[in-house]
Amino acid sequence: MMKLFDDLKIQAEKIKKDLSILYLAYRKPEVPWYAKVFIALIVGYALSPVDLIPDFVPILGYLDDLILIPIGITLAIKLIPAEVIESCRLEAEDLFKDGKPKSWKAGAIIILVWLLVAVFVIHKFTR
Predict the structure, then answer these.
(1) What pLDDT score does 18 carry?
(2) What is the model's pLDDT at position 98?
(3) Tens of pLDDT, residues 71-114
(4) Burial (Cβ within 10 Å: 0-12, 13-18, ≥19) of residue 24
(5) Segments making up each domain of the chain, as ranges
(6) What pLDDT was estimated at residue 7?
(7) 38, 44, 84, 116 — which has fewest CB within 10 A?
(8) Where in the numbering of this chain does the DUF1232 domain appear (predicted)?
(9) Which long-range contacts (CB under 8 A, 24 or more apart) does 103-106 make?
(10) Which residue has the higher pLDDT, 16 or 36?
(11) Terminal-residue alpha carbon distance, the chain
């Protein structure tokens, strides 16, 4: 059981480092616009206090954190030129030193998206 927790801890550290790489890559002019849009969605979702499935929902609440974010990170890294990734890896070493940066703009965007989805669903089912 301890090995499982150690493996999860290692995976969490890798995700944190990859998020910092994406955060730094977003600011680089060499990164294509479509990659920047995808990066903004992934980093915004990962740093947002709002989840697709709330964490208090048993088991399913953590699936988005364990599955969606790593898949999104992997896809985003594939969209970025290799030389940009390497330079961002070097810069990323110190980014999360003082804890996770808060992204209130990204959180606001995620909340806005969820509100739009809720309005659409309500509108669709109340006709």
Answers:
(1) 86
(2) 62
(3) 889 999 999 999 999 888 888 876 656 665 556 776 777 788 88
(4) buried
(5) 2-125
(6) 76
(7) 116
(8) 35-70
(9) 103/43, 103/44, 103/47, 103/48, 105/44, 106/40, 106/43, 106/44, 106/45, 106/47, 106/48
(10) 36
(11) 51
Place of tokens 């480092």: 17
Q: Which amino acid is at 19?
A: L
> Which tokens is 39 given?
């990066």
